[in-house]
Amino acid sequence: MKVMCVFGTRPEAIKMAPIVKVLKKEPEIETIVCVTAQHREMLDQVLSLFNIVPDYDLNIFKSGQSLTEITTKAIIGLEEVIIKEKPDVLLVQGDTTTVFAGALAAFYQKVKIGHVEAGLRSGNLYSPYPEEANRKLTGILANYHFAPTERNRQNLLKEDYPEEDIFITGNTVIDALQYAIKEDYTFNIQELNDIDYESKNVILLTSHRRENIGKPMENIFSAISDIVKKYEDVEVVFPMHLNPKVRDVAYKVFGDNSRIHLIEPLDYEPFTNLMAKCHIIVTDSGGLQEEAPTLGKPVLVVREETERPEGVEAGTAKLVGTSYDSLYENLDLLLSNEAEYDKMAKAVNPYGDGKASERIVEILLENK
Ligand code: UD1
Ligand code: UDP
């Protein structure tokens, strides 16, 4: 059986890496890795941590390119590789433009498609944008739907997908997280080692969603900036996404403040270990909403909708929207009220047990 794994951005790489590891150990399976490189540096960081050397690298990255450019370049590049390799199954993960392009390129060659992280729905095609649409469009083309949770399975059943094509596996991000988290971790960045995680309340911030760029992001950063002014024991670490549109807002709002660390994107290992050490997470990321509950870290989700309500229901995540007031009030509450903090700071596992990749590979072998 020949399985071709296609991915292009940081989160897909993180969540596909554990599957690649399991596939490569399986003697009955030949594994081909093809990256579109929709991301470049942020993808390469993950490839090197997991020691994955792609068989094909389409190198489509260009800074500032449009969704249409990403989609068309990826489909054209993938067509050639699929025709050459003739895989039995092509695996894609998640909701990025690479995922949809990968599924479409496979469909055009009548290659079976496995969709990892299937069935998440926010219910709004414009939030997350364009991810909600990418995930739904990929679902239509997929033959195997690897749903992380029962809710995701239910979402697919509501859309009339055949029950026998849907498999609950857990999310492979938890497999990756278990690989990366270390006891007594020391950073290779002095600025992070210098922070006293015991006596300071460290807020870890990430933000990159397309629909937040502009005013919503300004609101988010302003609320955090004012919280830093109010609480002298608060420090912020923001490993900034490489998108210049994100960085421009960050530099404008945060300016120069010794308690706000605007740093480069971290490798996955230091990043997850920083998550484990911080006090509160503020994010619009999908992956962080899944990782934070496992680590028992309160996460304020700065989005209007989430396709990952399990963390909210478990009490570790709170959907606070993108207004200044809402984020400021929620941070203020968590920093001033220990009981409120403790209510959210509990480790739960709604997204998986770390064995999702093994399940996916077993399912592929049993359902050839
Ligand atoms: C993409 C995905 C999004 C995912 C996110 C993870 C789409 C449409 N979006 O969003 O679903 O949540 O990745 O981070 O598929 N850049 C670099 N180097 C890199 C990566 C990005 O310089 O390694 C900069 C470039 O200026 C690039 C910009 O970031 O144009 C945006 O990258 P793009 O892949 O278009 O979208 P993301 O916002 O990263
Ligand atoms: N991450 C990382 N370094 C960073 C920020 C995030 O390795 O500096 C990891 C994080 O642990 C998570 C993933 O990247 O697994 C999330 O990626 P991102 O937020 O870019 O995308 P999303 O999950 O929103 O699609």
Question: What does this entry look like structurally?
Answer:
With 368 residues, the chain is an alpha/beta fold. It contains 16 helices and 13 strands. The relative contact order is 0.13. The mean pLDDT is 97. The chain binds uridine-diphosphate-N-acetylglucosamine (UD1) and uridine-5'-diphosphate. Uridine-diphosphate-N-acetylglucosamine binds at residues 9-11, 38-42, 63-65, 67, 95-97, 130-131, 208, 210, 242-244.
Short account of what is shown:
The mean pLDDT is 97.
Cα-atom radius of gyration? 20 Å
Percent of sequence in beta strands: 15-25%
**Strand order, largest beta sheet:** 3-2-1-4-5-6-7
* Uncertain segments: none
Discrete helix count: 16
Task: Assign a percent range to the helix content.
Answer: 40-55%
Bound molecules: uridine-diphosphate-N-acetylglucosamine, uridine-5'-diphosphate
Averaged pLDDT, please?
A: 97
Give the total of beta strands.
13
Shape: globular
Largest sheet, in brief, is:
7 strands, parallel
Following the backbone from N to C, one meets helices and strands in this order, namely EHEHEHEHEHEHEHHEHEHEHEHEHEHHH
Q: Which structural class best describes the helix and strand composition? A: alpha/beta
The termini sit apart by: 8 Å
